[in-house]
Amino acid sequence: MAETAPLWAAVVLPVALVLVAWAAASVDARSAGLGRAVLRLLVQQRRLTRAADVLLVRVGTTLLPVAAVLAAVVLPLGFRSVSDLPDGIVWFNAMEALAWAAVWLTGWGPNSALSLIGGYRFLAQGLAYELPHMLAITTAALGAESLRVGALVDAQAGLWFAVWMPVAFGVYLLSALAMAFWGPFDQPVGTDVAGGAASELAGVDRLLFLGGRWLLFVVAAAFSVPLFLGGGQGPFLPAWAWTVLKTAAVLGLLMWARRRVPTVRMERYVELAWVVLTPLAVAQALVVAVVVLGR
Amino acid sequence: MTTAAFWILAVLAVAGGVMVFRFDSMARATFSLLTALLCVGGELIVLGLEYLGIVTVLMMTIEMAIMAVFMIMFMMNPAGLMPMTMVHNKRGAAALCVTAFVLLVAGILLAPWPRRRGRAPADPTTDLGMALMGPQMLTMMTLGMALFATIVATVVLATRRGRYERYGDDLRATRPDDPVRGGVGR
Amino acid sequence: MDLRNRLGRVALDRPAVLLVTAAGATRERLAVEAELARRRWPRASGPAAADLVAFAGAPAPAGDDDWAERLWNGVPAPKARVRVRDPEHAAHALEHGRMALLVGAGTQGRQEQREPAGHERHDADGEHPPQHDGHTASGRSEHDGHTTSGPSEHDGHGHDAHQDHGGSHAGTDQGHHGHGGSHPGTDHDHHGHHMGGAILGLPMAERADDRDGLRLDRLHVPLGPALPDWPAGLVVRTELQGDVVQRASVEALVPPRSSRPAFWSEPWLRSAAGAPVTVDEAARRRCAAHLDSVGRFLAVAGWRDPAAVARRARDQVLGGASVADLRSGLRTLTRRVRRSWTLRWLTSGVGVLSSTQAQRYGVTGPALLADGDAYDRLLVWLEEIDRAVDACDDRSPLASHALNGPRGRIAPEAPASRTLVDVLPVLLEGTEFACARLVVASLDPDLDELAPQHARGGHAHG
């Protein structure tokens, strides 16, 4: 059922992502003042700290939105994605890992202690969330017996994976927040370190970095739809509408969660992730494997 | 198109490798190595081994990011103010690298490569999985367990704090005595 | 160019404000915060994100280090700064800052801020504001970096030298460091390069044992005085190993004299001096003080929503809202904070201060009552808020003996916040950075109390 979109979709993809991110950010700020904030960053000068490694900062800030858009290449709207790679799930995971490098470089480059702390906080966060996260997306792939995102959507024509893999779905939602260092997982850019990895960025650099984070957040949330919520499957409405609706619902849930929960510190979360979530995710994978073998 | 991509990635990979020796900043050296490895991953994708290529990208990115943790341990001066290289014995290392590169290139050019027989499989990922886990299942499982056991053993040997330090000599303490409290309370 | 100017005007109509509070300027801070909330201007978390810097009170320098000036230098253009020396003038000063930004945006184009490598200039004087003036602004885009004039940046080990790693948020001069390998010894074993000292006037890390007995780098980072949600005037000089605070020492940047009593303990100080004070006045002040602390604590804990609610409630309490209005809102807030099991999970076990230890340091007030960790101290605040609201319409006179302010016993010679500051280094040692912030926020010393009082006369303000 999955088909590859025409070439112009590659151009439309970043634009569409920016639009969704813009809408989400406006809802989150509960105001329409977002345009002014973006404009403010555009008229602001870039800024160099003393003895900064400018090259690394520029690479880091640019890599973040690029990684988000590359990850979205396998994201289907309805049943069409820009490229339905045979290993789409691994591709998504690899591109999301590029964000680790991006945030780290952005934190290290400006030669500032707070920025550095923000940078390596994200590494600690990555190490904490990645284990259960990989198990969760592997479980979904196991359920469809394929690494192709299109095949995953097809396999959920009857029952959504979220229904019979609730643990994997929950773990994925947590790691979606963590990989975009957003909401309760915003420690790498937390206020306690005055903006962390972003603390020394001004002007266009800041716009790229924080905008890239929004893109990554939208992509991470949107990827839960083909993974666990049946992609474009649904009655009455066209497939693309279902994708948009479900993505909006996931985004809404995650944004609501941020208002309910304080920032999660990694020295607490890493133990939860490794001691509780990882075994749970393994058990979930085992159950799914047994079901798949039996069918 | 494919040939062009191959050559661009190849040149970038080699250039990234060379720059590891040229940079005197830890972060730059690490990330030029990462660039080289990402280009190698790209080469694998260009050659039709998508799964291997993407996995290379994934593993190498995370690996280099973890290297950064050690960077902080050994050097807290951000932005590489203190110049330092990632290679010991720079000349020897460079000589070894160049020799190995030349030998490999010579081998590639001089070896009598066999002609392709049959056609490429439709899904090389499945075939790879079959090749690894089919007839070699026992080997791979043993290998996996051995690697895992090595990791656990290394950590056990390296840590100075076992359960007696954490829970007291009679293991009766309700809360472990840790420098920083964890999230599960055990 | 015209379009760009117009865009700049639209963008800067609501500038992002970095509020820098000096010790002793709580009244001004509250006025500016209320005004910012009213105007719905965004708050900047650091100089890089700011358009407008609002100094509440006169920032006291740390030794010979003018951190406020360095912070200003780190703000990217277009920028403006205002000084608020009087709570009444907050709105006027902010408006003035906005106008200065808009005028500046009209006359300048965008320009990359860049200096040739290694070039140093001492030009900070060019746009020093006249000190007596209420507010000054600069929308120009001159290269005002490189204030490497003080001796502090050249001696590698003196404690002042560590400012420039940015922890204080002031060490952010513009500059460019070419990675040219002009430094000798790049061929050596890399462990050979740790020798402390300074490169480019920036102090290097030195090495020391970590908590596992490994010999690793240790960086000197001063926290404060201009961090967001940080007690005004407090500087904690930390030695960081990775994320772990290995050692901490505290410095209080208080003005040499203060003509006004500390805002949060004012009713009790007045009562101690024999002036008539009513119970409701004291209750309102205590309630607002704790709401301020709770708001700060929740903001540091990363829970922005209720933090904003707490701050709004604080302004209502001080603004004289009726007890009935206050009660329902505050009950909702305290119940919401108490019910959050994630907040409890995240803050319990942080900064444990037993009552015996607290007594040894002479700590009184909520920190002594709590007899436990940061979460326990938060609970004591919430309890006292609930109790204080009920007393907000009690017009009877305040008993003038055994006076207990929001931070502890009122004693002009030994203020309660002094003991809280004294106990900080012990609690901070061995904590991780985020925990250290929580510990400071959970004690929330009020450095206004530390400023010497009643020392009128002396030299005039600079």
Named CATH topology of the largest domain in chain B: Four Helix Bundle (Hemerythrin (Met), subunit A)
Helix content class of chain B: 55-70%
Task: Profile the largest sheet of chain B.
Answer: none
Number of helices of chain C: 14
Q: At the third CATH level, what is the topology name of the domain at 266-450 in chain C?
A: Cytochrome-c3 Hydrogenase, chain B
CATH class of the domain at 266-450 in chain C: Mainly Alpha
Rg over C-alpha atoms of chain C, rounded to the nearest angstrom: 23 Å
Structural class of chain C: alpha+beta
Average residue pLDDT of chain B: 84
Whole-number count of domains of chain B? 2
Strand order of the largest sheet of chain C: 1-2-3-4
- Main CATH class of the largest domain in chain B: Mainly Alpha
C-alpha-based Rg of chain B, rounded: 23 Å
Strand content of chain B: under 5%
Mean pLDDT of chain C: 75
Low-confidence stretches of chain C: 108-196, 455-462
Percent in helix of chain C? 25-40%
According to CATH, the homologous superfamily of the largest domain in chain B is NADH-ubiquinone/plastoquinone oxidoreductase chain 6, subunit NuoJ
Biased composition (Basic and acidic residues) (chain C): 111-167
Region (Disordered) (chain C): 106-197
InterPro entries (chain C): NiFe-Hase_large
Subcellular location (chain B): Cell membrane
Protein described:
The complex is a heterotrimer of chains A (295), B (186) and C (462). Chain A is an all-alpha fold. Chain A has one domain (3-294). Chain A has 11 helices and 2 strands; from the N terminus they run E-H-H-H-E-H-H-H-H-H-H-H-H. Chain A has helices at 9-29, 34-43, 54-71, 88-108, 113-144, 149-155, 161-164, 166-179, 203-228, 239-260, 266-294, and strands at residues 3-4, 80-81. In chain A, strands 1-2 form a two-stranded parallel ribbon. In chain A, helix 8 (166-179) runs antiparallel to helix 9 (203-228). Chain B folds into 2 domains: 1-110, Four Helix Bundle (Hemerythrin (Met), subunit A) (Up-down Bundle), CATH 1.20.120.1200; 123-178, no CATH class. Chain B has 7 helices and no strands. Chain B has helices at 2-22, 26-46, 50-74, 90-110, 124-133, 137-158, 163-167. In chain B, helix 1 packs antiparallel against helix 2 and helix 2 (26-46) runs antiparallel to helix 3 (50-74). Chain B is extended, with a radius of gyration of 23 Å. The mean pLDDT of chain B is 84. Chain C has 462 residues and is of the alpha+beta class. Among the domains of chain C are: 2-111, Rossmann fold, CATH 3.40.50.12280; 266-450, Cytochrome-c3 Hydrogenase, chain B (Orthogonal Bundle), CATH 1.10.645.10. Chain C has a 4-stranded mixed sheet, with helices on one face. A 4-stranded antiparallel sheet of chain C has the order 7-8-9-10. The longest helix of chain C has 22 residues, at 279-300. Chain C is globular and about 65 Å long. Chain C starts with a helix and ends in a 19-residue tail after the last helix. At the A-C interface, helix 2 and helix 5 of A face helix 1, helix 6, helix 9 and helix 14 of C. Chain A: The chain crosses the membrane at residues 6-27, 55-77, 97-123, 159-182, 214-233, 239-257, 269-293. Chain A: This is NADH-quinone oxidoreductase subunit H.
